[in-house]
Amino acid sequence: MPLFRKVLVANRGEIAVRVIRTCRVLGIPTVAVFSEADRTSRHVREADEAVAIGPAEARQSYLSIDNILAAARESGADAVHPGYGFLSQSGDFADAVRDAGLVFVGPPGDVHRRLGDKQASRRLMAAAGVPVVPGYDGDEQSDTRLLAEACAIGWPVMLKPSRGGGGKGMRVVRREEGFLDALAASRREARGAFGDDTMVLERFVERPRHVEVQVMADAHGRTVHLGERECSVQRRHQKVVEETPSPALTAAHREALCAAGVAAARAAGYVNAGTVEFLLSPDRAFFFLEMNTRLQVEHAVTEAVSGLDLVRLQLEVAAGRPLPFAQADVAPRGHALECRLYAEDPQNDDLPSPGRVLHLSEPEGPGIRVDSGLDAGSEVSVHYDPLLSKIITWGQDRPEAIERMRDALRRTVVLGVVSNLARLRAIVEHPAFAAGELHTGFIEEHLPELTPTPCPPLEAIAAAAAALSRRRTASAGARRSAPDPWANLGAWRMGDER
Amino acid sequence: MRLRCGDQSFDVEVRDARDGLEVRVAGRSFRFALEPVGPGVFVVREGARARTLHLARDGAAIHLSWGGVAYTLAEEREGARAARRHDPGALEAPMPGRVAAVRVTAGQRVAKGEELLVVEAMKMENALRAPRDGIVRAVHVLAGDAVAPGRPLVEIE
C-alpha cells in the first residue's frame, strides 16, 4: 500500500526531479507543476503527469498558492511536496494545503511561522537554552533605534531580514557611516523577496564557520539528528561547497552541537525534516542562526553518509508513520562533499548568467551522484535561482571524497551558459580546502587563486579552430542534402564524416 | 579565421596536412587529427596523445571545454569590421534584469570599483561597478527599467 495516492511536487529544477525519483521508487504517482518557461523541462518529463500553473514570473506560478492547489485538485493528488525555496517555508501554504484536505510534506503552518521569523526564533531558542549570537531582535525598527542598537552591539554588525533566507538582504556593516545605506538596501531586498522588511541585528563573528544539524522528527514525539554538515564555503551568503562530517569538530563538539540541534527542534515543536543552522566561531563556540523548515539543497551529503533517503523519510512522517529507527541506529560512514554548479560568472563578480545550455555532459562513477534538472537545450531563465545542478561525491574518508570530486568536476561539461565550474575546481584543489581551513570568507580570502583565467591555452584555440573548419566543410555537404537538425546546437553529425 | 577572447585576437590558419590538420596560431603550429564522437564532442589526437574537445556555437560565440575548463571565444567573420569598438568606459547590462537602484548622476566623479547601479536578476541584487576612474557622462536608465543584455546603462569619460 503506497504512502499516498499521488504526490504533487510544488517546485521545479533539480529538486523536483529529486523528489519525483523517490516517489517513483515508492510506487507513488507524481504530478509536476510548471510555468510557461519550464514547459519542456526535465521535471515535467520525469513526472507521471504535469499541470501548467502560469507564466514564467514566479509570483504568478510557483509562488501562487491558488494555482498550485487548483493543479492538485485537477490531478487528484492527496499530498504536496514543496521542495526548497518558493513556498516551502510558507506557513500560509502549509495551512492552505491542509485546509484543502491534502497532506503537506513538511511541518505545519504555525511551526513555519514560528521559525520563519528570525526575531521570534531567536527569542524561542534563547528561552530553550540554545545559544544565540549577541544582537538585537526587538520590535522597534526605526532607523535611529537600529543604529543605536548596532553601535551598542559593536562593529562589524550583520543585518538580517527577519523573514529572510538564502542570504537575500543580508549585509555586513563595518562602520557606523555605512550603516543607514546598507539598512536601506537590505530593507529593499527584503521587501522584494519576502514582502517584509523587519530586520534583526547580530554581532558579526569574524572568520566563522557555518555548521548545521539535520534533524528528523515524527508526529509521535521522536526527534533524531542525522549528524551535521559544514557549509562554510559561501559566496554572497550563498552556499557553494558543503560536506559532512565537518572537519572542524571533535567527537565531543559534534555531540554537543547535534544535541543543541535536537533541543532546538523540540523547542519549536518540530515535525518532519528540518535543519538547524549554527555559526561556529574560531574558538569553537556555536550559536543558533536559524532553522530551515524544509529539505535543504545539501541534503544529499547526509544521505550519502547515512544511507538514508530523506525524501522517503519525509513522506513516511507526513503519512503519520513513526520514524523507523532510533538515534542509536544512525551510524554515518565515510565522508561526502557537494559542489553547487551555478549559472554565475566568476570572472564578472559572480553575476548570474542566464542563457541556453548548448551542450551538457555530467560525470558518473564510483561514489559520484549528480542531482540535476538540466538537459542540453535547457533555457536557464532569469526568473529563477541560478542553481544548475549539484555534484555529490562520497569517499571512505575526506581525501577520497575530494579526489572523487576533483575527477567529477574535471569531467563535467556545461556549454552555453557561463558557470562557476572552474571556480569549484579551484576550490576543491586549493591546499587550504584540503587542510579543512574553512570559514565563510574562504572564497573572498582566496579570490585571486579561485578566479579562472578567461582565455584558453593556445592548443585549445587551435583545436577549436580545427573543429570549426571541419564543421564548415561538413555542413556545406549537409546543406546539399537535408537541413542539419544539429545546426542550431552547433553540433556534429557522425554521418557527415567524409 | 580570427578568434577573439576578451581583448586578445588570434589569427588562426587551418590547413589539410598528410595525416590530419595543421593549425597555426600565434607563431605556433599544431598537428591534429580530429574525430567527431558525438554531437559537439571531438577526440583531438596530437601524436600519441588524445584529448577531448567539447564545442558548441551560438551565432558568433564559440563555447568550448578543454581539459575540464569551459571558455568562450568570439569568431570575427571575414570582411566584418575588425575588432568591435569597445568603449572601456561604457557599462552595459551583463544580463536581463530590472534596475533596482541608480547610485550616480551625470557629471559625478566616480572611482574604479564604485557602485554605479544595482540590477536585480535571478532574485538577487547585483551591484554594477565603475570599470575605471572618471566622470559620469550619461546615465541611460531609471530605477524600475527592465534591461536586456548589452543595453548601455552608464557612460564614463
Q: Which chains share the greatest interface?
A: A-B, 65 and 61 residues
Low-confidence stretches of chain A: 479-498
Order of strands side by side in the largest beta sheet of chain A?
14-13-10-11-12-15-22-20
The CATH H-level homologous superfamily of the largest domain in chain A:
ATP-grasp fold, B domain
What is the C-alpha radius of gyration of chain B, as a whole number of Å?
21 Å
User: What is the highest CATH level, the class of the largest domain in chain A?
Assistant: Alpha Beta
In the CATH hierarchy, the architecture of the largest domain in chain A is 2-Layer Sandwich
Shape of chain A: globular
Structural class of chain B: mainly beta
What's the pLDDT, averaged over the residues of chain A?
A: 92
Helicity of chain A, as a percent range: 25-40%
Unreliable stretches of chain B, pLDDT < 50, 5 or more residues? 80-86
Q: Count structural domains of chain B.
A: 2
What's the total helix number of chain A? Answer: 17
Mean pLDDT of chain B: 85
Which key terms come to mind for this protein?
heterodimer; A: 498 residues; alpha+beta; Rossmann fold; Dna Ligase, domain 1; D-amino Acid Aminotransferase, Chain A, domain 1; 5-stranded parallel sheet; 23 strands; disordered C terminus; B: 157 residues; mainly beta; OB fold (Dihydrolipoamide Acetyltransferase, E2P); 8-stranded antiparallel beta barrel; 4-stranded antiparallel sheet; 0% helix; elongated
Can you describe this structure?
The complex is a heterodimer of chains A (498) and B (157). The radius of gyration of chain A is 23 Å and the shape is globular. Chain A has 4 domains: 7-105, Rossmann fold; 134-203, Dna Ligase, domain 1; 209-450, ATP-grasp fold, B domain (D-amino Acid Aminotransferase, Chain A, domain 1, 2-Layer Sandwich), CATH 3.30.470.20; 458-496. Helix content of chain A is 35%, strand content 23%. Chain A has helices spanning 13-25, 42-46, 65-75, 91-99, 109-116, 118-127, 143-153, 179-194, 251-267, 299-306, 310-318, 398-410, 421-428, 431-434, 442-445, 447-450, 458-481, and strands spanning 7-9, 30-35, 49-54, 79-81, 103-104, 135-136, 157-161, 171-173, 199-203, 209-217, 223-235, 238-244, 272-280, 286-292, 335-342, 344-345, 351-352, 355-356, 359-361, 368-372, 379-380, 387-395, 413-415. In chain A, 55% of the residues are buried. In chain A, strand 16 (344-345) and strand 17 (351-352) form a beta hairpin. Chain A is α+β, with helices and mostly antiparallel strands and 498 residues long. Chain B has 157 residues and is mainly β. Chain B has an 8-stranded antiparallel β-barrel with strand order 1-2-3-4-5-6-7-8. In chain B, strands 9-16-14-11 form a 4-stranded antiparallel beta sheet, with no helix packed on it. In chain B, a hairpin with a 2-residue loop joins strand 2 (8-17) and strand 3. Chains A and B meet through helix 8, strand 17, strand 23, helix 13 and helix 17 of A and strand 2, strand 3, strand 4, strand 5 and strand 6 of B.
